[in-house]
Specification:
Layout: H1 8-26, H2 28-34, E1 55-58, H3 102-108, E2 140-144, E3 148-153, E4 158-163, E5 180-186, E6 189-195, E7 217-226, E8 229-237, E9 246-255, H4 268-280
Length: 287
């Protein structure tokens, strides 16, 4: 295994590792009470009849922590933006970078960990775990109103406001790292359409090279299966960079046993100091 990949995302995760056991320990009683039953309750609904997506969502555990039922810490999803997904049976699904056009493949070879925009606390366009609600972390909170769905990201303390009242994309705002989002309902599924991205972020972090262009277009579909489960399906298009659309492997999120996220900010100076220290350490060659 090559030397460690240490970026702003990892720095945030290291901070998370320290905080996670405290949070999990403090809420151990709630975790047992909130553990999914063998038959989960139906998804709650708003007064207008649409599913209520509100809640704190995670993969089932914190990074560096353990879920109430045991198990190891979360691992990046297979087929992630940078193509470093977890191993599994059968052929790995396509990654974002596997669909790069020839010029982008050539550019990819010239970049490394030090070029990761998250080193300067720049959010990702999609997320290291292929869930935009998480950004570079693994916990996010959704607050739903009749007019908006608000997505709060714990790491970097980011947010995205998704109007669901039928309005079009705004044409009077500058490009953004997270894009401009509008949403609509297709039955019980919330469809979130994102455009107007800046080209200065990556799709992912942790040194997963995944640059994109300002033509990036992301469509996410959120379906609350039951009271404890939220499924996210995503399709990504970038005609300036990709040879075709990238279909992200379906992500399954779980309702967390706590009802508020924490603030995990980012300081570029601290991150760079951490990286410089890591680079100075000799590589032992051990996994």
């Amino acid at each position: 295994m090559k030397g460690p990949i240490i970026t702003a995302a990892l720095a945030g995760m290291l901070a998370w590792s320290a905080a996670a056991p405290v949070r999990l320990s403090a809420q151990a009683g709630n975790a047992a009470a909130a553990a999914p039953a063998s038959t989960a309750a139906p998804a709650p609904r708003m007064a207008d009849g649409h599913p209520d997506l509100s809640g704190v969502w995670w993969p089932g555990n914190d990074i560096g922590g353990r879920p109430a039922g045991g198990g190891r810490g979360a691992a990046p999803a297979a087929g992630g933006p940078g193509g470093r997904g977890g191993a599994g049976r059968g052929a790995a699904p396509p990654s974002f970078t596997s669909l790069y056009q020839p010029w982008a493949q050539a550019k990819l070879k010239t970049l490394g960990d030090k070029d990761d925009p998250s080193l300067d606390c720049v959010p990702t366009a999609l997320g290291t775990f292929s869930v935009s609600l998480f950004d570079v972390g693994a916990v996010g909170q959704i607050v739903q109103t009749p007019k908006f769905v608000v997505m709060l990201t714990e790491t970097y303390h980011g947010f995205q406001i998704v109007p669901t009242d039928g309005r079009p994309h705004r044409d009077n705002v500058p490009p953004a790292n997270r894009g401009d989002a509008v949403g609509h309902w297709e039955g019980d599924t919330l469809v979130v359409d994102k455009t107007n991205f800046t080209d200065s972020s990556w799709m992912s972090a942790e040194g997963r090279i995944s640059f994109h262009s300002d033509a990036l277009h992301i469509v996410e579909r959120y379906h609350r299966v039951d009271a404890n489960t939220l499924e996210v399906e995503t399709k990504v298009e970038d005609p300036k960079v990709l040879t075709g659309p990238w279909t992200v492997p379906k992500q399954t999120l779980r309702l967390a046993p706590f009802d508020q996220i924490m603030e995990l900010g980012c300081s570029a100076g601290d991150v760079k100091a951490l990286i410089e220290g890591a680079v100075a350490q000799p590589n032992s060659g051990k996994n």
